[in-house]
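Before the break, one more example. Copy the sequence into your notebook; we will annotate it together after we see the structure.
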Amino acid sequence: MLAGSLLLAASAKAQDEGGISLKPTPPPISCLDFFKGTSQFTFTGIYMKLGLPEDSEMDESPTGKGFNFEMSRGFADGFGLASHFMFLGLNIPTKINNVEKDYPASAMAMGATMVLDLKKGEKRDIAGEIIDKKTTLAVFTGFDFIGTDFEMENIIEDEDFSVKTMEGSLPLGLVADIPLGYYVSLVPFGRFAWSKTTVTTIMPYYIYLPAPPYLILMPGLPDDSSYTSTRFDYGMDIDLRLFRNAPEWKISVGTVLSQVEGMADGNLIIMASVKKEWGKHYSSTSFGPKLH
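Here is what the structure looks like once it is written out:
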């Protein structure tokens, strides 16, 4: 039990110094060609391998699986807003007293993003039919909130050890849509984010007495600490319009690499999305009167 207490104390100290092992990354925006009155809903399945702190002694990285739901709406041609909600179920490998065990954790994220097309490459006629596609370049900024919850039950007798984080970040990025014809597009992006994180740690501890029972185990009190950090993400999606007579449907696959300050390894995200667009700038006919 004393060895366990020392390990928990070391873990709490690492948390207090900013060595957080749970730093999930929100996915990038999924819509950047905005038309007034047009909306797009996107559902994304996510696999994420999280980076490890620079001073981590873990042999394996935490991993997560979950989803992201995004809704986008154009308020003017070339300008729109997007909001998203993400949930991840995480698996945290730990090693205490040479005993390896996986513990569950969870992460949730939500945010809002403003997108401005610097160069608009998609053109539509009055019926909403796509008549031309060239490269679109957009800048985006907004606010993201990310919360994580990690708990090790009965770590010492019947007492639990838990770490909760709350992070607010301000992202700023560039994204492009590079068409390879009407049906395939490459969507590279880069994003920089400033963030502030608050960590709440609850660690059980012992009170030492000069007489029997000598040790009394206490459940622990919440201990808060805060720090700031930066993150740089980059990656690329491949957007596919598979159905000629239903261009409002798209699927997307892609990856994201996230370099997080204080992490020896970056986050890796693999995503697959389904997107559907509708609004007054949509035509149910095929792409344009002339295909190229």
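The chain has one domain: 2-279. The radius of gyration is 23 Å. Try to locate both features in your own notes.
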